[in-house]
Design brief:
alpha+beta, Nuclear Transport Factor 2, Chain: A, 4-stranded antiparallel β-sheet, 184 residues, 10 helices
Length: 184
């Protein structure tokens, strides 16, 4: 069950340059984020995340931090790169995100390879007030000989003078699956 969820999450994660946005526009941030994804630059992706999003992922992963279930150490090792609840609690929000996304990609090398070869075409963005924008892009990737093309949205929010990426709903689904797997 977890493997299916991981595959789904990887395929639904925004796909895609340098780890830092060159200009402060929604499209530049989305492009940098997508390039970091394609390059497997998990720390670069984390740097482009909005601080609220990083904290939100940490909150969603709380069952993994707090669980005393027998399998919790293995889950923490798999998803966060640490074994104990104390080690997990000591991780920064940025490290939690980077380790989690790295783990998802390591657990599904086929999807990770497809992401590396994906082509991304930015279509534009739609503003939602002055501080939030939804960047629309078409992702085309080859998965085991099948070409998959779909239109996706990456939501960004202002953080000071810059735009930073928000979490997608896919993370909530993963957190729910982890809670269920840990009996919570």
């Amino acid at each position: 069950m977890i493997a299916r969820i991981v595959l789904g999450a990887i395929l639904l994660l925004p796909l895609a340059g340098p780890a830092e946005a060159q200009e402060s526009t929604p499209e530049a941030t989305a492009s940098a984020y997508m390039q970091a994804v394609r390059a497997g630059n998990w720390a670069g992706m984390a740097k482009l995340m909005h601080p609220e999003a990083l904290n939100q992922l940490r909150t969603l992963m709380q069952p993994l931090f707090a669980s005393n279930a027998p399998e919790a150490d293995d889950f923490r090792q798999r998803f966060l790169g640490v074994r104990t609840a104390r080690e997990a609690a000591a991780l920064s929000d940025t490290t939690v995100f980077a380790n989690f996304v790295r783990s998802l990609n390591e657990q599904n090398p086929t999807a990770a390879q497809a992401l590396q070869a994906a082509t991304i075409e930015e279509i534009g963005h739609v503003s939602e007030g002055p501080d939030v924008a939804h960047v629309v892009y078409r992702a085309t990737l080859d998965v085991e000989g099948m070409t998959i093309s779909n239109v996706n949205v990456l939501t960004v929010k202002r953080s000071g003078d810059d735009w930073r990426v928000l979490l997608t709903g896919d993370y909530s689904a993963l957190a729910t699956a982890l809670r269920q797997a840990l009996g919570g």
